[in-house]
TrEMBL record:
Keywords: Signal
Name of the protein: CHAP domain-containing protein
InterPro entries, per database record: CHAP_dom
N-terminal signal peptide: 1-27
Segments forming domain Peptidase C51: 118-202
Name of a matching Pfam family: CHAP
Organism: Nonomuraea diastatica
Record Gene3D superfamilies: endopeptidase domain like (from Nostoc punctiforme) (3.90.1720.10)
Length: 228
């Protein structure tokens, strides 16, 4: 079994990167709230498991009848939705906890469905938008940002060009390896001045928000194949 190192860093700094540690902690009786504030080691998920990756690959080849603009409009409709004082209560966490994908990621990461209800939810938000718009086969679904990015990379749809509707992965310290990823959202546009306009969940004060981010914090982009 891998050794897990917990480093005390505020949840809102780390956001979704802490998800793997949260699920692991739940499985072994560690305080979930404390684990949610910490970062798993960068090798927490060395690779997406062959079983779940094969299922995801099959879905990736499925065409969708939704455009990038439609996905972004729907994501924008969620701006202002907030978590509760316990870090949960969002529709994104509730949906993910009950989803088929939760069973697969529990098999990969350990834990149980209840652990997702108060876990960092930026990747769950992206996944939920995909589900609700019918774009999930192209957007993918995961609760762990690193695994989500690896899925795009495994399907040769991960790169360094900002495109509207792309799934953008961040590392706050400027790291450029997939294992450095800590947060995820949607690209609205490249502002042409070294920044991006984005829509993200689990940001700011635990809300869905429109943000402006420096491109220096971007690890890479996942590219769904939208209609049109």
């Amino acid at each position: 079994m891998a050794t897990f190192r917990l480093t005390a860093i505020p949840k809102r700094t780390i956001t979704c990167a802490a998800l793997g540690a949260t699920i692991f902690a739940s499985a072994f009786g560690v305080n979930v709230a404390a684990a949610n504030a910490d970062t798993p080691p960068v090798d927490k998920v060395a690779a997406v498991s062959p079983v779940t990756d094969s299922k995801q690959r099959a879905a990736k080849d499925t065409k969708v009848n939704v455009t990038a603009s439609q996905v972004l409009d729907f994501a924008k409709s969620q701006v202002g939705i907030s978590e509760n004082a316990a870090g949960g209560g969002t529709p994104y966490q509730k949906w993910y906890a009950g989803s088929q994908r939760a069973a697969e990621t529990i098999a990969r990461d350990g834990g149980n469905r209840a652990a997702y209800l108060n876990a960092a939810w930026c990747a769950m938000f992206v996944s939920w938008v995909g589900e609700q718009t019918g774009a999930r086969p192209q957007i993918g679904w995961d609760a762990y940002t690193v695994a989500h990015a690896k899925w795009f990379a495994a399907n040769d749809r991960f790169g360094t060009e900002a495109k509207p509707g792309a799934v953008v992965f961040f590392a706050w310290d400027g790291g450029k390896d997939i294992t450095d990823i800590q947060h995820v959202g949607f690209v609205v546009k490249d502002n042409g001045d070294g920044t991006l306009s984005t829509i993200e969940g689990n940001t700011g004060n635990g809300k869905v928000e429109e943000r402006t981010r420096p491109k220096s914090q971007v690890v890479g982009y996942g590219y769904p194949e939208y209609a049109g």
